[in-house]
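#struct-help
A.M.: can someone run this one for me? Single chain, 306 residues.
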Amino acid sequence: MMPREYQFGFELRHLVYFREVARTLHFRKAAEALAVAQPALSRQIAQLEGALGAPLFLRSRRRVELTDAGRRLAERAEPLLRDLAGVPAELRALAQGRTGRVSVAFTGLAMATVLPRILREFQRAHPGIRVELNESPTAAQLAALRGGELACGFFHPDAPTPGLRTHLLLSEKNGVLLPAGHPLARRRSLRLRDLAATPFVLFPRAHNPGFYDRVLAAFARAGVTPVIAEEVWPRANGIGLVRAGLGATFMCPSEARPLPAEVAFLPVAGPGPESRLVLGWREPPDPPPALAAFLAVARAAAPRPG
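D.P.: on it. Structure tokens below:
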């Protein structure tokens, strides 16, 4: 049963007929424009007046005029009908992936490497789709994806992710970012055991348990117990602490350029943690058109590393 608030005594066609008569102020001309018989048009207007409980036109042999109620209805009906006329094209654009919005989460590694190019290419190819960006750690992204609160995310996988599809974007062994004044900063490379006495700036394990554990495992293989001075997030804050001389941190070669003068990046010889960055989204069902467009651009702009 139709809800009471949507039960009207008139139909959309009554408003269309009224608008044409209000525009021309002439029943014969309005009937010709609408391709209906003039008596039928007069009946439709009378039905609308009866449903609204107010006369809409003053009629005489010589002229037709709008009443105050008619002028008010014309003011309200015109934008309403104009908006309704645009609905089919708007819905077609949504269905075809030409308009809409996509909520995208990312980690600092994504923004420092593949994401800017993806966003640039996507904006060029799909200017009608708005991308809503949110920096978020891996654990929060996984929860948001499973809960349907996020369209897709750029995160660091640490285990199989049931219910999600992923596309590998980056896989690199980390180097070490040191303060420029560190005694080892002038070397061409180093081993983790060289850093046994160097404090490290990491991030809370809950944000990305997989990478955190790979860091500790790399130190263990090198026979070193790391000195963890700070745990901060987001990643850019850790880099800031290195610049301040408070410790070292890990960084992928892809994000290590350009760097400020206060720090130095050195490759790690021997055991070192690896960073993996993926693009992930829910499955099934198939992604909606706007998301499908974003995924296509992302996978083309940042192909799977070989």
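A.M.: thanks! The mean pLDDT is 90.
D.P.: also worth noting: The two ends are 59 Å apart (CA to CA).
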